[in-house]
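Dear support,

Our group has been running a series of protein-ligand predictions, and this particular one with uridine-diphosphate-N-acetylglucosamine is the one our PI (initials K.S.) wants archived with full inputs and outputs. We had some confusion internally about which version of the output was final, so please treat the block below as the authoritative record. The input we submitted was:
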Amino acid sequence: MKILVAGGAGYIGSHTIVELYKSGHTVVAVDNLYNAKLKSIKNVEKILKRPVPFYKIDCTDKKRLEKVFAKEKLDAVIMFQGYKAVGESVKKPIAYYRNNIDSALTIIELMDKYNVHNIMFSSSATVYGKNAKSPIKEDSDALKLNDITSPYGETKAMIEKILVDKANADKKFKVVLLRYFNPVGAHDSGLIGEDPNGTPNNLMPYIAKVATGKLPYLKVYGDDYKTKDGTGVRDYIHVVDLALGHVAALKCYKNKKKNTFIYNLGTGKGTSVLDLVKAYEKATGRKVKYKIVERRAGDVDRLYCDPKKAKTELGWDAKYDIVDMCRTSYNFEINNK
Ligand code: UD1
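Confirmed final output from the archive:
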């Protein structure tokens, strides 16, 4: 298939482009480079030893994006584009709603106009809200509570809804919603990985900066959660496994019986903050200093998925373990000083 990858220069988009080409597909990448660098596309080209068509375009810019739809004969679109910082979304909700929803609507309208019917969306476990009981299944009752904790999370849920409504109205339109748990790690080459602007908010990139001496210590947000060591438990998934999940999900487009598909992409294994610290030390031989501090507002005890549906229906499951995730994160960090 020829696939438009919106947000292709970003962390998950860039890894997915690599795996799409490796599986015989071709890609056209677009990105406004707001939270990504052109270097990541150049490095994807190095990994693949081939050029990757790239357009620096903001997906809310319909005129410019339309030129891509008019020129390229696309079979599908994968939407990775969008702002993604949870804390920032609380401070700038309107920017999040405008950018994330507008870019999705623009893409869907252009798909309609140019007869592209297959879409895959980068959703998140955040759509389950704070009361979901782990292991979480795709049809979790928690979805009905709609107790999502940030505008970022709301945009994920709204775009899911927009896509499902469109699929209900137009049977040709095939929608795949992929709900990611906590993507971490980097490509084995060390050429692409997570490169957040400023001080990281998420755990793994923060640990990487502590292990390499760029930050003094990790603040562990609370050790009084109802978990085995008191620290928060999450379902960390290696970004290459996640990328392969997208490749596996392309087979949904061949399904003649239905046109909406939803899958969790996670390992189904819970890892605590202190487990991750220990795994990082083991994988890298570097010390990760930490201090226990107050809980972070909005955090929950534990969040991990039931990954069976993706395994049964897509034949996909995660292969990398937590030590691989730490090793590749560190490798990327020291390669990108
Ligand atoms: C958050 C978002 C999720 C998003 C993900 C990006 C919510 C509820 N969660 O997940 O939607 O997809 O980021 O990967 O919107 N921690 C520390 N110290 C730190 C940073 C984190 O102790 O400096 C702890 C947290 O308390 C938590 C765990 O590490 O227990 C993971 O936190 P983080 O990496 O920020 O991810 P989530 O909050 O799970």
